Structure prediction request, 463 residues.
Amino acid sequence: MTLSATTTSTSTRRGLHVITWGCQMNVYDSARMSDVLRPLGYEPVDAPDHADMIILNTCHIREKAVEKVFSELGRLRNIKNTREAEGKQTVIAVAGCVAQAEGQEILSRAPYVDIVMGPQTYHRLPEMVARAARAGGAVIETDFPAEQKFDFLPDSAAPQTAGNLTAFLTIQEGCDKFCSFCVVPYTRGAESSRPVTSVIAEARRMVESGVQEISLLGQNVNAYHGEGPDGKTWGLADLAYELAKIPGLTRIRYATSHPRDMDDSLINAHRDLPELMPFLHLPVQSGSDRILTAMNRGHTADEYREIIKKLRDVRPDMALSSDFIVGHPGETDEDFEQTMQLVRDVGFALAYSFKYSQRPGTPAAGAPLQVPEHVKDTRLQALQALLRQQQDDFAESLIGQTISVLLTGKGRKPGQITGRSPWLQPVHITGTEELIGQTVSVTITERLTNSLNGIMVKETVDA
Ligand code: SAH
Ligand code: SF4
Ligand code: F3S
Prediction:
């Protein structure tokens, strides 16, 4: 297959506006869609009002996803109409997980939409744009193509990262785990991993453009099983060792991990590689074995505790982040108390918690014993209070400690610059802009609501 985007050039400059909702993988995908459209003359514009093409990249993970899409589309239709009155065309495209799950409904309820495309089809975008222009009707691409989009997206000079010090890099997509509550296996398709050489090449391009910290992305990033240059299958640990060899790549993160795939080789990589940041997002969802089984998570609460212990044995400064769902069908007060106990036992530096939301087509949606909304509310409040306390305690524990901070940009006040701690907290210091791009030693002096203040003590940090 040839990709017209890489060969077509046009002198017509067109405005592209991308609206991105959902997870970091959508953020990455939006950047790649911009890449694939650039050779057609599309350049990013800040407001949809000036755009010849608007892409709405959607998320389906929790409730009201579809309503939110239609309400936004109503706004975009007004823009399209106003521009049409001025003699200008606007292509409206809906991408992402709602497009995948509800493609037909979007076309029938919003006939002014020109393109509907699932997450595995973005490499075909130039062809879709051409088809939409030719046919004058809507184009829908929601099959899961046999080819992998990553093999067909153009090699860009990583423009999403131009001038950036941190970047996302998707290495794995899709999911075969079928948790009872989750739409992802249906919207993103089967699990697949990019080959090692393609990942390394993209990482190198990012580093050459100035990136120092890369976050590897995947719905189950630690289930990564890419084809290695030796013809063997490489796991995430193997990939991490290889990435750590790239000069200038000082920080590596990965998300989202599944406890089931947290094997010893990956845990040992945290022991061996200072580049692997001591901060891991490892969703557990519940602390009750009964509910973990109902969720089809494939591990027990104690197995999760054991993984955390191993990680902290090899990396004592390891901090944890997680996702929780309260009110999964069948969850009793006692089950919920076990979640609270797990939180107390582990101690999280950060966490996201959600009320269970019935997703169409998922097994839990039709399960008996749905938990009433007010019970979910009460549980969520209790859990969030505990998690907030832990987040504050963790930040507080850093006061007086000297930590490494990658300085990424200007601060909020004049004379201030801001960076990132190893645990993803924003850190503010007094300093000048020439320091941006350096990793420095900072002694933490104060905790703010969601960030830290500190004083720089040394201009460079030994890895
Ligand atoms: N692959 C990751 C999670 C991806 S979805 C994992 O397995 O952990 C991100 C988070 O959204 C999940 O961890 C879960 O906490 C939440 N989530 C997913 N489906 C949900 C639903 N139906 N209701 C409420 N929260 C949900
Ligand atoms: Fe969804 Fe479970 Fe897959 Fe995570 S592992 S994406 S929660 S099905
Ligand atoms: Fe949302 Fe799809 Fe990501 S449902 S969380 S955008 S994989």
Remarks:
- The longest strand covers residues 402-410.
- The first helix runs from residue 4 to 7.
- Residues 22-23, 25-26, 59-61, 96-97, 183-184, 187-188, 219 surround FE3-S4 cluster (ligand 3) (CB under 6 Å).
